Amino acid sequence: MQKLNLLKESPSQTAGPYVHIGCVPNFSGIHGVYPEDLGAVMRREGAKGQPITIKGAVWDGTGTPLKDALVEVWQPDADGIFTSGDPRGAGDPNFSGWGRFAGDYDTGEWAFETVKPGPVPFPDGRMQAPNITFWVVARGINIGLQTRMYFPDEDNSADPVLGRMEHKNRVPTLIAQKESEGVYRFDIRLQGHKETVFFDV
Amino acid sequence: MSDGNYFTRDRSWHPPAYTPSYKTSVVRSPNKALISFPPTLSEQTGPVFGHNILGELDNDLIHNFAQPGESAIGQRIIVHGRVLDENGRGVPGALVEFWQANAGGRYRHKKEGYLAPLDPNFGGCGRTITDAEGGYRFRTVKPGPYPWPNRQNDWRPAHIHFSIFGSGFGQRLITQMYFEGDPLIWQCPIVDTIPSREAIETLIAPLDMANTIPMDARAYKFDIVLRGRRSTMFENRPEGN
Predict the structure, then answer these.
(1) Is residue B111 a contact partner of residue A17, using CB atoms and an 8 Å limit?
(2) Which of A31, B74, B95, B239 has minimal Cβ neighbours within 10 Å of its Cβ?
């Protein structure tokens, strides 16, 4: 029989407690190597859509915030177009779509400025509710955890991803809290009560 | 018709979330199963980084934090290899970031208190973007092993952390590179989170005398494999079709 000759993906390893050195060196106090940390600014002046702020923290199974977590986000622009690689067109040139944020060393809290994403079709053509993909790494996390944040002020009832979840009582873990106009809070609970839904995509 | 989608990730090859000999994983591992759905544009697309983000010394950790005329102390090495996908195709334009301790095993981080000293000329971070064939290389000093509070006497093998962006966010990966012949590899609870010896071996970089620069720096070769994609719908990607 012939062989498929496929390689195996490199196995993941934890990002460790000092992920900041490599991913956000200026945040970690290493200055002078890079002018700025990648992913720190998602929207520039002139970006289309509604400017929003998203805050949150990552919590462990004892209810303690992780003080060494790093989150990355990837989202479309206000029109629902991704800013690179999207076969449907070019995205907003004043919006990056990608961000990277470390939790505060004392509180674990992070916050970032972005724009509210537009809706994107699911592979079968149905529209998904607006959402932001999150990817979480930290000490003690052996492979990055992927989740999604949805908005409490949108109609999420027909979303194909939320719709396929068997345990509907877990859907609220993916929906941010609205703190005030344009300000949302999204807490990610790794384990236990109200454990956030994580995806294998 | 091709759809550019990923090969399903083999989660029996990767470390599981819950690995109690690596103690921190116990309260940081989800109890519930991951939920699967077919990759969407959120996974098929991803950020692209241009060479304009790179400074001249970003791939030279011996000099990128050093005072003028100075250099980091330690074993001078070159780490090089290719970023490939599971089809064996090079991934061009991939951002590769790396970070590490200094030659004595000390990280430049305010939460780190190991008694080995900082090297005033070593920061410990670097980055590069793969070339048209997926190749990358950087200069650094070989990191030292490092003790950590897990069991009473655990030491990390010498290692360099890697963060890699492929052509889509579904390929996002962070891993660690180890060095050929290090006996600590086989005693490390973090290495041991990986279920098979065969998979662990893929993270061990061999000494590469062919690429060693005489009287300057030894070389280690480290290839990184990202998830494969079926023939892609992205016409502007060299790995497609």
Answers:
(1) yes
(2) A31
Other CB atoms within 10 A of residue B12 CB: 9
By Cβ distance, the residue of A85, A133, A138 closest to B28 is A138
Closest-CA distance of chain B to residue A195, Å = 7
Is A18's CB within 8 Å of B109's CB?
A: yes
Check residue B3 and give its pLDDT.
60
Confidence at B1, pLDDT banded by 50, 70, 90? very low
Q: What is the DSSP letter of B51?
A: G
Q: Terminus-to-terminus CA distance in chain A, angstroms?
A: 31
Q: How far is CA B173 from CA A36, A103, A146, B71, B95, in A?
A: 22, 20, 12, 30, 11
Are B47 and A190 in contact (CB < 8 Å)? no
The DSSP string of A45-80 is TT--S-EEEEEE-EE-TTSPBPSS-EEEEE---TTS
Q: What would the pLDDT profile of B82-117 be if each residue is shown by its tens digit? A: 999 999 999 999 999 999 999 999 999 999 889 999
**Distance of residue B223 Cα from the nearest chain A Cα, in angstroms:** 9
Using one digit for the tens of pLDDT, what is the confidence trace for A100-125?
999 999 999 999 999 999 999 999 99
Residues of B marked as catalytic? 107, 146, 156, 159, 161
| Mean pLDDT for the stretch of residues B59-78 | 98
Residue B33, SS3? coil
Task: Give this prediction's pTM.
Answer: 0.96
